[in-house]
Amino acid sequence: MSAQPLVTHLYTADPSAHAFEGKIYVYPSHDRETDIEDNDNGDQYDMVDYHVFSLDTVGGPVTDHGVALKMEDVPWVSKQLWAPDAASKDGKYYLYFPARDKEGIFRIGVAEGDKPGGPFKPDPEPIKGSYSIDPASFVDDDGKAYLYFGGIWGGQLQCWQSGKYDAKWSGPQEPSGKISSLMPRVARLSSDMHSFDESVKELAILDADGQPIKADDHERRFFEAAWMHKRNGVYYFSYSTGDTHYLVYATGDNPYGPFTYQGRILEPVVGWTTHHSIVEFKGKWYLFHHDCSLSKGVNHLRSVKVREIFYDDKGKIIPQTP
Fold it and tell me: How would you classify the pairing of strands 259-266 and 205-206?
């Protein structure tokens, strides 16, 4: 199921998949060719718009709903429309997206639409209090909605350790040693889904002894690509380990955590980045992810793929290989 890209007429990455209106809708980044040289700050990932795709059945035809949002329609953005996500509430649809503002600082914006395939109308300013990258929205069974986000190195999360942006931490760097690693962020969304309803919180990821995952533990520490799903009352927070190229997950009993590290979901794929989503559809669970096989290994030209995933009788995700 995962051998072939979801689409081949565009390069797509960072897929956020949701079951809306009896279909799967996928909200990916739209990679494009660029002359920017590869670097660890991610400058080569120079995306300028978003397409939305839908599937009636996994493995069946894929509909491209066209451009749902483009950079020139968002007043505050200077460049780099990176990994988005979407949410549905009260008959409306919301697209959350990170981009650099006019000062080069990543913020998170929101755009609203009447249909899951877009188009989406963006707010004129980013969400107040937002920063870094990779927003992942989650609407719980009680209707409360949350936004998870964060990414280190090019994603700038390390620049916010003091609560304010510190440019000296910009670029491919992070804390090191036996101290706690940098943790992802979460905030509950307001009832209209356009703002934070509370101050941003850190999301603790702990080892089996209840201690924070350490900064030097690059095989388990959070790097980017937050995702939240819920199964049988358990909250699964999954993410990428970045420079070790794993998709991993931790579990908790509420949307704020803490979350205890459980293991890997997917081993490294072709290409530097790995980014995913997990969605239930028609009684089965699917992992949407990407790799660079279609572009023959070009890191910034990726393609979305999908595969079914499985859980054991204790609720643990059975690890997969590409």
Answer: parallel
What phi and psi, each to the nearest 5 degrees, are found at residue 285? -110, 135
Pinpoint the alpha helices (H) of the chain.
none
SS3 of residue 48 by DSSP: coil
The CA-to-CA distance between both ends of the chain, in Å, stands at 11
Angle at 244 between CA 98 and CA 205, to 5 degrees: 65
Name the residues annotated as catalytic.
14, 224
DSSP bridge partners of 278: 287
Rounded to an integer, what distance in angstroms lies between the CA atom of residue 202 and that of residue 212?
12
Take residue 289 and report the two structure tokens written for it: 């992810």
Total number of residues shown for the chain: 322
CA–chain centroid gap for 32, Å, is 19
Is residue 27 within 8 A of residue 16, CB to CB? The reply is yes
Output the pTM of the full model: 0.97
CA–CA distance, 60 with 64 (Å, rounded to integer): 13
3 conformational bin, left if phi > 0, alpha if psi -120 to 50, beta if neither: alpha
The three-state secondary structure class of 155 is helix
Residue 103 in 3-state DSSP? coil
The 10s digit of each residue's pLDDT in 189-226 is: 999 999 999 999 999 999 999 999 999 999 999 999 99
Whether the bond between 119 and the residue before it is cis, its omega within 30 degrees of 0, is yes
Report the C-alpha gap between 15 and 266 in whole angstroms: 15
Q: Is the pLDDT of residue 2 over 80?
A: no
272, amino acid identity: W
Rg of the chain, C-alpha, whole Å: 18
Alpha carbon distance 148, 270 (integer Å): 26
Residue 1 has pLDDT above 60, yes or no: no
Residue 62, beta-bridge partner list: 55
